[in-house]
Amino acid sequence: MKNTIIVLIALLILVLISFGIYFWIQQSVPSVDMPSTDTSMMKEGNESDKTPGLEEKKEETVIGKSFGGHDIVAYHYGTGDTEILLVGGIHGGYEWNTTLVAYEAMDYLKSNPDVIPENVMVTVIPVLNPDGLLKVVDTVDRFTKADVSTSQTVQVAGRFNGNDVDLNRNFDCDWQAKGTWQNKAVSGGSKAFSEPESQAIKNYVDTHTLSAVVVWYSAAGGVFASNCHNGILAETSTLTNLFAKASGYPAYEDFDFYEVTGDMVNWLAKEKIPAMSVLLTNHTSTEWTKNQAGIDALLKHYTK
Fold first, then answer.
1. DSSP secondary structure code for residue 274 in this structure
2. Less Cβ around it within 10 Å: N or C end of the chain?
3. CATH classification of 60-301, choosing from 3.60.21.10, 3.40.50.300, 3.40.630.10, 3.30.360.10?
């Protein structure tokens, strides 16, 4: 009996020792979840290794939305502090060739980055009025001449945004609720900058230092200086004549074919920003060779 008790005690001691060893091992060996924890730590380390300030400037920016909810996109080329802004499509599908010339400018700048001086950034807004463009070419994105509706009624409707406002009558220079286009009365909106498209441009101008602005229109064939009753800025006069000489378009001090109210480039003049209107000769050609020469002249002018 005594021997049996000794054996049982010995077995109990062995069991206790075994459990002790087991729990010690569990506390000492790393958990199987550790690898995922290490991976997370590595990810955090990689993110912290990024050097601040070395991120490239965005190549494109959504500056706002149209009345119909479509993005208005600005594309940027070069990284300098001297910014030149090129704008097409303010009259949407009615002046669809102004959007195509803006796209050609984008292609040129992307394919030939060396033409942009180190101190310059060129920003291109190819479609300021996507609602109007959609009416005529059935897209707010890039298109070809084959996409253009041949209906004159449709093209005229494409001049206006989704709120039936002529955007080039919605800016703060001589703004009126009822503007004039040729011999027709058009809406200038409920007030200056009432439309989201013109407000988007205003916000962009307010938050950027622009050295020059070119806005394409059609069709008269010329380069027109901007002015809002405060005289033509000296730099505007210089740029107008420079672009005209390089492109072969005639230069004009103002647009006086008929009264224009709420004009975009004249508002820019009021803000003391050098700006000009480049009117293509007709409603179908981009006259790219002329406009490339004008753009090159501007880039050369601002080269330090």
1. -
2. N
3. 3.40.630.10
